[in-house]
Amino acid sequence: xxxxxxxxxxxxxxxxxxxxxxxxxxxxxxxxxxxxxxxxxxxxxxxxxxxxxxxxxxxxxxxxxxxxxxxxxxxxxxxxxxxxxxxxxxxxxxxxxxxxxxxxxxxxxxxxxxxxxxxxxxxxxxxxxxxxxxxxxxxxxxxxxxxxxxxxxxxxxxxxxxxxxx
Length: 166
Ligand SMILES: CC(C)(COP(=O)(O)OP(=O)(O)OC[C@H]1O[C@@H](n2cnc3c(N)ncnc32)[C@H](O)[C@@H]1OP(=O)(O)O)[C@@H](O)C(=O)NCCC(=O)NCCS
Fold this sequence. Notes:
Layout: E1 8-10, H1 17-27, H2 33-49, E2 56-62, E3 65-74, E4 81-89, H3 98-112, E5 117-123, H4 129-137, E6 141-151, E7 154-162
Parallel strand pairs: 4-5
Antiparallel strand pairs: 1-2, 2-3, 3-4, 5-7, 6-7
The structure holds coenzyme A (COA).
The site of coenzyme A has 18 residues, from β4, α3 and α4.
């Protein structure tokens, strides 16, 4: 899959990334400040402990800074299943194929780590309808729905993609 113009992927986190990630997450207007803090903490854990943290990142550098990123990790206790924890694209770059490209690179990176199944949790709330459409467009299917999981009226939707074996 061709990279979107001017966007370059990288796997290794740098010391300035946790702050840039928190800023990017906040800029989407999509997440609470608590969620932005968690995104930052996950990145800090990887800067401090590397893969031993249990988290992996794939970042996309754009001309004006961080264009997007994905955060994922192996699910403990499974043979080859992974969770996608975050996928975020800078607001001014959304809708231009960066997310689909990041997802394809993430799936390839997980394949290289031996992963065969990628799970993504999201909310059933109307605010997340575009996110659910994005996952469906990337080939994910709804594997389970847990009504009222987060709070009354806010269920968890679990998407799944069986990754092609390499
Ligand atoms: C969800 C997100 C990562 C998608 O990235 P993106 O770069 O905007 O998506 P793309 O341009 O690559 O779109 C890929 C496909 O998803 C679909 N899609 C993406 N955003 C969509 C939206 N808001 N509504 C409907 N479809 C959407 C596109 O139509 C496209 O499908 P197509 O190629 O068949 O037309 C990005 O919009 C984002 O960061 N949103 C806020 C954060 C978020 O919801 N993250 C996921 C939860 S952690």
